[in-house]
Amino acid sequence: MTLQDRHLDTPKPFSCGDCKVKSSEIRTGDFVDSLERFHQSRSVIEDFTSRTLAAIPSEFGRLYYVSSLKDSATGRYRHDGLMNLYSEDSVQVALAHCHEELFSKILETSLSHQERDLRKCLDAAGDKFWAVVETWRESRFFQTLCPEGLPDYLSDLFCSNMSALLAIFSANRASPVPAS
Which residues contact 93 (CB under 8 A, 6 or more apart)? Predict the structure, then answer.
C-alpha cells in the first residue's frame, strides 16, 4: 500500500456544501438526549432497587414483584411512586431492565439455589404455601414471570426449572417424614 493509498483510508470530515463538519459532531444532540435518558433510567433503577427491591428477601420474590407491575394487556409497567418522580419512558426502560436482570440472575444460579430461593419466596404465603405451589403448578402461572422479548430457550429453561421445583415441593409434601 502506498502512502497515497493510506491517505485515502483516513477518515475525512463530512462535507455539506460549503460547511465542513467532523463526523464526530454529527447527531451530537441525539447523543446528549440518549445520555440524559441513560442517566434518568439509571436513577430510576438505583431508586427502585435500593428502596423497593432491597426490602424483598428473595430473588424470586423480587422477580414476582416486578412482573406484577406489568399490565399484561399493554405490556407497560406501572409504579405510581416512580412515575411521580420520573418520566414514564424512564420508568418503562428501568423496570424492563430490572425485570430482565432479575430473570437472568435466577437462571445463572444452580437449581438447588433456585429451590431454596423459591421456597423462601413462597414461605411468605404462610399457611397458603401448599395452595400456592399447587395453583402455580396446575395453572403454570410462573410463565407470567418471564420478561418479554427473550429468546424462547430462556423462557423454556425457566419454565422447565419452575415445573421441576414445584413438582419437587409437591413430592416432598406427599412423602411421609421418617420417624427419628
Answer: 37, 41, 44
